[in-house]
Amino acid sequence: MSRLTKILLVLLPGVIAIQFIKPARNISGQVSEADITKRFNVPANVEGILNTSCSDCHSNNTRYPWYANIQPMGWLLANHIKEGKAELNFSEFGNYSGRRQLSKLKAIGNSVKDGSMPLSSYTLIHRNAKLSKENKVLIIEWAARAKDSLETN
Amino acid sequence: MKTLFFGIAVAAVAFTSCSDNNTQSKESAEKSSDTTQTNMQVNNTEEKKSKLSKEVIASYLQLKNALANDNAKGAATAGKAISDAIQQMDDGSLTAEQKKVYDDVKEDIKEHGEHISGNGDKIAHQREHFDMLSEGTYDLIKAIGSDQTLYKDYCPMYNDGKGANWLSEVKEIRNPYLGKKMPTCGSVKEEIK
Questions:
Q1: pLDDT in tens, A61-93
Q2: How far is B43 from chain A (nearest CA, A)?
């Protein structure tokens, strides 16, 4: 037996054991009253982009990939989603103070513009979440419009 | 088999890369909340109120001056300070009107402070948050008042020409958005007493 095989054999029971520790899923299964789509005008094409590229980590409804069933991947995902939601949660958007909504909309535009969002570690696996130039413009302009609607109210 | 494990290891590194910052700042936030406990033992409400907004103003000015000097590390420290100060303000002594403004800006200022403190190597990003933080701080000070005279300054060039405001303790312009590149760009818009 090679050394690597031996090491893997030693690790195997641990790898199996952790499969039974599964984090709770982030799936509310409904659109909450505070959802951003209920407070702002979100055109269908923009909503589609948000769902594909943002909502897995920034809402109460994640579409889980198959490897979420394999630990420790499931744990890492759970942690990522927790952090993403703390930063921005479209399902709770209406519960933010007006000021905070304003900042979040501004930050959405900024982070899409400078390419810091969606995270490259996310688009590495979710290839379709990568934003095209056109989709970036759609999001940036929508966020600016939503911000203006908030400021004039 | 080998490639599968390698794949998991790579993905694990990718997914953990941005998760370390938060815990640290939470710990130190807890630590510094101890110090304000003692600050809050002042009995006179008026005195207490001005003292509390004083801390927000002091840390804001510290942040503003660090950015004007292109000092991202100093800005990070001050960002943490304003984030703490805004949370530790005692809203019990505020009028209903003041409380409304405080509730509107509290979480927002806290978050901007955290972002500024978490990005000690990205001054451009710190300035984006400073822009938003300045708006909230201005509204809060207008509502609560300030012991010291402050100036609301305006930089027309920042934000691709959309402009941005900031607050200063001195009349001459020291631009925190453009820093040492264009330190005197901007103008005084309002004197706040």
A1: 999 988 888 888 888 889 999 999 999 999 999
A2: 31
Given CB atoms, is B4 within the 8 Å cutoff of chain A? no
Residue of B nearest to A114 (CA): B125
Which chain A residues have a beta carbon less than 8 Å from that of B111? 100, 103
| Interface touch B108/A83, C-beta < 8 Å | no
Residue A65 phi/psi, 5-degree rounding, is -80, 165
Q: Percent of chain B beyond pLDDT 90?
A: 61
Q: What is the pLDDT of residues B45-103, one digit of tens each?
A: 454 455 567 889 999 999 999 999 999 999 999 999 999 999 988 888 888 999 999 99
Q: Structure tokens of B55?
A: 């801390």
CA pair distance B141, B52, nearest whole angstrom: 11
ipTM above 0.95, yes or no: no
**Among B2, B18, B104, whose Cβ lies nearest the Cβ of A97?**
B104
Q: What's the farthest any 2 CA atoms get from each other in chain B? A: 70
Query: Which of B2, B12, B103 lies nearest to residue A76, judging by beta carbons?
Result: B12
**Distance between CA atoms of residues B161 and B104, nearest Å:** 27
